[in-house]
Write a structure and sequence with these properties.
Blueprint (H helix, E strand, L loop, with lengths): L1 H17 L6 H17 L3 H17 L3 H37 L1
Helix pairs in contact: 1-2, 2-3
Length: 102
């Protein structure tokens, strides 16, 4: 009987993990919370413990793809700034060498 009750939960878990790459952090957490409800309904302590860990990890480490893309844009912008500043530094060093040699 336990196996019969656990089967829908396992199927739901597999389906939610398959679509994980396209879900936002909020959607992932909501799916885990739904699974938590099922686990609590059937008093599945091991599943509850695993879902609690999963929810904690989602809250701690999940980043939406939009924010990752935003970070990538910020990184590219900062890299351009560094490149420009290095060029200015090289120009200033060249000017200093010219001044010393004259």
């Amino acid at each position: 009987m336990k196996m019969f009750l656990t089967l829908p939960l396992v199927a739901f878990t597999v389906a939610s993990h398959a679509s994980e790459q396209t879900q936002s952090c909020e959607q992932r957490e909501a799916a885990l919370q739904r699974q938590m409800g099922y686990a609590q309904e059937y008093n599945n302590r091991h599943e509850i413990a695993g879902l609690e860990r999963a929810i904690t990890e989602v809250k701690r480490h999940c980043r939406n793809s939009a924010s990752r893309n935003g970070n990538a844009d910020e990184i590219r912008r900062r890299e351009r700034e560094v490149k420009e500043l290095r060029q200015k530094l090289a120009d200033a060093e060249d000017a200093l060498d010219d001044a010393r040699n004259n």
